[in-house]
């Protein structure tokens, strides 16, 4: 059994068949992340429709800060926090033009919510790995996953030493920096995901693509895929406090 711990399900049209396909290949649960007021609302609806299979996370993505109703989104996140297993996708991205002070301000607010409500964070930290880590650590966050980690090794070591997780995507099949991170992180600190519908090598991913992530991790770590599945699924259950139901 596998868990796709980071999926943008709001971007799919034919969700029922997409999720049936995932079930058939052994995906036992999907953590659906939101990025904005609009996508959080969609994710909540999807979570209601596919209860006990899709688990919502509510977020404020750094890419959406200038176009989104950020205040309205914060209000929604607090109102619906009981329906969320995590806060995400949130974070910092210093490779985009969005003002860094604004990014940091919003990120600190969601980090506060994580601490206040005891919800894990699903963090995007591209180009801002150490800045994101420092904020999370200094604000006393206990549970977090640095999703699709491709940052430097010293920050990765600090992430792991702090008890946080990193997650692997299908890019672990070919992306040098991501492969390095997957190699370094012990299975006890690793989650699997797809970040679907991201296109990997020309193919649009969906939650069933987490099988490819598992195979890539298995080959990087020279560990049987069953063991990768068992350990990473156990991590996901523990971090997000989800129950898995037979497929
Ligand atoms: Zn994402």
Provide structural commentary:
With 247 residues, this protein is of the alpha/beta class. The protein has one domain (2-240): Metal-dependent hydrolases (TIM Barrel, Alpha-Beta Barrel). The chain has helices at residues 15-24, 37-49, 70-79, 100-117, 129-138, 153-161, 176-184, 210-221, 225-240, and strands at 2-7, 27-33, 54-60, 86-91, 121-124, 144-146, 165-168, 190-192, 199-200, 203-204. Helix 8 (210-221) crosses helix 9. The mean pLDDT is 96. Bound molecules: zinc ion.
SSE topology:
Layout: E1 2-7, H1 15-24, E2 27-33, H2 37-49, E3 54-60, H3 70-79, E4 86-91, H4 100-117, E5 121-124, H5 129-138, E6 144-146, H6 153-161, E7 165-168, H7 176-184, E8 190-192, E9 199-200, E10 203-204, H8 210-221, H9 225-240
Parallel strand pairs: 1-2, 2-3, 3-4, 4-5, 5-6, 6-7, 7-8
Antiparallel strand pairs: 9-10
Bound molecules: zinc ion (ZN).
Could you list some keywords that capture this structure?
247 residues; alpha/beta; TIM Barrel; eight-stranded parallel β-sheet; two-stranded antiparallel ribbon; 10 strands; 43% helix; globular; binds zinc ion
Principal-axis shape? globular
- Ligand types: zinc ion
How many discrete structural domains? Answer: 1
Low-confidence segments: none
The number of strands is 10
Please identify the top-level CATH class: Alpha Beta
Overall residue-averaged pLDDT value = 96
Taking all Cα atoms into account, the compactness measure Rg is 16 Å
Shape-level CATH architecture: Alpha-Beta Barrel
How are the strands of the biggest sheet laid out side by side?
1-2-3-4-5-6-7-8
């Amino acid at each position: 059994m596998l868990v796709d711990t980071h999926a943008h399900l709001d971007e799919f049209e034919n969700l029922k068949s997409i999720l049936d396909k995932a079930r058939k290949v052994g995906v036992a649960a999907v953590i659906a992340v939101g990025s904005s007021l609009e996508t959080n609302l969609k994710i909540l609806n999807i979570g209601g429709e596919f209860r006990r299979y899709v688990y919502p996370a509510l977020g404020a993505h750094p890419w959406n800060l200038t176009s989104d109703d950020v205040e309205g989104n914060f209000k929604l996140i607090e109102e619906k926090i009981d329906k969320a297993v995590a806060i995400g996708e949130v974070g910092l991205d210093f490779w985009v033009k969005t003002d860094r002070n604004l990014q940091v301000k919003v990120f600190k607010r969601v980090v506060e919510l994580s601490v206040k409500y005891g919800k894990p964070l699903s963090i995007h930290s591209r180009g801002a790995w150490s800045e994101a880590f420092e904020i999370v650590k200094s604000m006393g966050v206990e549970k977090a996953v640095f999703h699709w980690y491709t940052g430097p090794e010293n920050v990765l070591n600090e992430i792991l030493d702090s008890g946080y997780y990193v997650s692997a995507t299908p890019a672990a099949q070919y992306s040098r920096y991501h492969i390095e991170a997957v190699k370094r992180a012990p299975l006890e600190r690793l989650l699997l995901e797809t970040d679907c519908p991201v296109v990997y090598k020309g193919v649009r991913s969906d939650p069933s693509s987490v099988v490819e992530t598992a195979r890539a991790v298995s080959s990087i770590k020279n560990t049987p895929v069953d063991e990768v599945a068992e350990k990473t699924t156990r991590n996901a259950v523990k971090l997000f406090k989800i129950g898995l139901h037979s497929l």
